[in-house]
Specification:
Shape: globular
Radius of gyration: 19 Å
Structural class: mainly alpha
Helix content: over 70%
Length: 245
């Protein structure tokens, strides 16, 4: 367990050294602040007519459907495909392949949570500063929505790792992920029945929790997410374990 913890911290540090990661951190902080500043000071009457909470959830939707998936694709490509290209993916070290694989997946997932929490914090602070009316009760509900959004992001992470392990070119990996993700986002408009079979289906999962949640629906969706993660994680590890040093 200590080995996984130490290597996870090492993988997170790798991500932190990347300029693109710092850009995502900056975006998580600045986008909510700039959005609130513009909406409350530039007389954008159509947007200002919307409740503050709606704008907050619109910002969350932007991150969970666009920015964080993009970060996941870049991170998975760098930690798997990129290291494979550089010959550093399977260096001889006192750590098993399962521990190495698990620590990389955990690192991407944890950093995704960090981005979500940074965005939530920026949304709350900017709301308190710029909004004319700030409801303290919105703090707990919005935090819950942000945290709930993390679970389908973990599933998407495990799926992205599979794609990263399939190819040996970073350019091909990241471009392939983006194209496939766009396909998954738009195919339900053509084939509506395929919606809940896709890894991208529950990225807006938090919206369901804001309404009345039935126990049956909760069990079904949690089972789907857990099953999808277990399947993608297992396939990914199988592919990772078969790689030659």
């Amino acid at each position: 367990m200590n080995t996984i913890k130490a290597n996870t911290l090492n993988e997170i540090q790798k991500l932190l050294t990347k300029k693109v990661t710092k850009l995502f951190v900056l975006a998580a902080v600045l986008i909510p602040v700039l959005t609130k500043l513009l909406l409350n000071n530039l007389f954008l009457t159509d947007w200002m007519a919307l409740p503050s909470e709606n704008i907050n959830f619109t910002l969350l939707d932007l991150f969970v459907t666009i920015l964080i998936p993009l970060f996941i694709f870049i991170a998975a490509t760098d930690l798997f495909t990129g290291e494979g290209e550089r010959g550093t993916l399977l260096q001889v070290r006192p750590i098993s392949r399962m521990e190495l694989y698990l620590s990389k997946v955990i690192a991407i997932s944890i950093f995704s949570l960090i981005l979500l929490l940074l965005e939530w914090l920026a949304v709350m602070i900017s709301s308190a500063v710029f909004d004319k009316v700030f409801d303290m009760a919105a703090i707990s509900s919005s935090l819950g929505a942000f945290i709930v959004s993390w679970f389908p992001i973990i599933v998407l992470t495990s799926f992205a790792v599979i794609l990263a392990l399939m190819v040996h070119s970073s350019v091909l990996a990241i471009s392939g992920m983006i194209v496939l993700y766009l396909f998954m986002m738009f195919i339900p408009y053509v084939l509506p029945h395929s919606l809940y079979l896709l890894p991208s289906a529950y990225l807006d999962w938090y919206m369901q929790w804001l309404s009345d949640v039935s126990f049956r629906w909760m069990i079904q969706t949690v089972t789907y997410l857990c099953s999808s993660f277990a399947l993608f994680f297992s396939i990914g590890y199988y592919m990772f374990n078969r790689k030659e040093a």
